Amino acid sequence: TIRWRTRRDEEGQEIRESNARIVKWSDGSMSLHLGNEVFDVYKAPLQGDHNHLFIRQGTGLQGQAVFKTKLTFRPHSTDSATHRKSAFCPWLAAIRSRSAQK
């Protein structure tokens, strides 16, 4: 879970802090460090013109951004807690056992 908190610096200015960091490596790859977990980040272009971000503004919507790319996150290691949780999902186990029987 990505968590945010607000604190004040020495001058009294509000600073937002998070337990998440995105690292861009020298080879161009990226990873998300979230607490003790590490995720590989995959970047891919989005097709079409239906990828907009809107916010509610009064009784209407206001456009804020158009997304051109998407990010996908995958656990970096099979030893991660996230991988263990997803690997033992009951529905995933059922799918795996069916495909192994074929």
SSE order and pairing:
Layout: E1 4-8, E2 14-18, E3 20-24, E4 30-34, E5 37-45, E6 52-57, E7 60-66, E8 69-75, H1 81-87, H2 90-101
Antiparallel strand pairs: 1-2, 3-4, 4-5, 5-8, 6-7
Describe the structure.
- This protein is of the alpha+beta class.
- It has one domain (4-98).
- The chain has 2 helices and 8 strands.
- It has helices spanning 81-87, 90-101; strands at residues 4-8, 14-18, 20-24, 30-34, 37-45, 52-57, 60-66, 69-75.
- A hairpin with a 2-residue loop joins β6 and β7.
- The longest helix is centred in the C-terminal third of the chain and has 12 residues, at 90-101.
- The chain is extended and about 50 Å long.
- The two termini are 37 Å apart.
Strand order in the largest sheet: 3-4-5-8
Uncertain regions spanning at least 5 consecutive residues: none
What share of residues is helical? 10-25%
Give the overall average pLDDT: 83
Task: Please report which band the strand proportion falls in: under 5%, 5-15%, 15-25%, 25-35%, 35-45% or over 45%.
Answer: over 45%
Distance between the termini: 37 Å
Q: Major beta sheet, specifics? A: 4 strands, antiparallel
Class by SSE composition? alpha+beta
GO molecular function, one term: RNA polymerase II C-terminal domain phosphoserine binding
Pfam families: Leo1
Family: Belongs to the LEO1 family.
Protein name: RNA polymerase-associated protein LEO1
Question: Which properties best describe this structure?
Answer:
102 residues; extended; four-stranded antiparallel β-sheet; two-stranded antiparallel ribbon
